[in-house]
């Protein structure tokens, strides 16, 4: 692979000059075509650039009518942009609906915090053994694991948990002010 010959260099320069002339001539036409469908100057210019990049990489010797080719490519690029925007907006809407559903309201968040405070108060009033049993059970530990940690027989775990739950309910109602 040697250097390009002077005639090849001239041919490349001629193609470049020809493209530049076609760009200057048809760029306003392409932007107007986009603006007919999508009245946003900045988007129209972006799409026009895409069309001219595509035009640059196309063998222009097979194009019979350049304005018609540009108009068709512009319409396709504009509708592709609109479809892409529509899909993007649908995704954003779906994500925002998901976030709205999954985020607690200020009121429910406040109530939840208040509940957490009341649960903590009730747990602090329990003896260590009951509190540990309840916290470990609701953290996902099995009866076997609870028995091992508490150093009791596995069959006794259920009875102790039942008593701890009853005691917790009473204490929670007192903390909450429901009586007791």
UniProtKB/TrEMBL annotation:
Give the RNA polymerase sigma-70 region domain ranges.
22-87
Q: Where is the signal peptide?
A: none
Single GO molecular function:
DNA binding
| Lineage: superkingdom | Bacteria
Chain segments annotated as coiled-coil in the UniProt record: none
Keywords, sorted A to Z: Sigma factor, Transcription, Transcription regulation
Instruction: Show where the RNA polymerase sigma factor 70 region 4 type domain sits.
Output: 118-167
Gene Ontology annotations of biological process type: DNA-templated transcription initiation
Q: Tell me the Pfam families matching this sequence.
A: Sigma70_r2, Sigma70_r4_2
**Keyword Transcription (UniProt):** yes
Asked if the Swiss-Prot or TrEMBL record annotates the protein with the keyword Transcription regulation, the reply is yes
- Into which family does the record put it? Belongs to the sigma-70 factor family. ECF subfamily.
> Which NCBIfam families does this one have?
sigma70-ECF
This chain belongs to the protein called RNA polymerase sigma factor, sigma-70 family
Q: Which organism is it from?
A: Laceyella tengchongensis
| Taxonomic path | Bacteria, Bacillati, Bacillota, Bacilli, Bacillales
């Amino acid at each position: 692979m040697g250097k390009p010959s002077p005639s090849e260099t001239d041919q490349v320069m001629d193609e470049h000059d020809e493209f530049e002339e076609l760009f200057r001539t048809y760029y306003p036409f392409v932007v107007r075509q986009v603006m007919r469908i999508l009245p946003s100057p900045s988007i129209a210019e972006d799409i026009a650039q895409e069309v001219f990049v595509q035009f640059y990489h196309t063998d222009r010797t097979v194009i019979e009518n350049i304005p018609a080719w540009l108009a068709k490519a512009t319409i396709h690029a504009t509708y592709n942009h609109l479809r892409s925007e529509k899909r993007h907006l649908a995704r954003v809407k779906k994500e925002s609906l998901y976030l709205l559903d999954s985020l607690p309201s200020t009121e429910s968040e406040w109530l939840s915090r208040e509940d957490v405070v009341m649960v903590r108060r009730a747990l602090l009033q329990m003896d260590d053994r009951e509190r540990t049993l309840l916290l470990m059970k609701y953290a996902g530990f099995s009866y076997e694991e609870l028995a091992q940690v508490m150093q009791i027989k596995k069959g006794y775990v259920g009875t102790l948990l039942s008593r701890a739950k009853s005691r917790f309910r009473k204490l929670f109602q007192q903390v909450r002010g429901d009586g007791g």
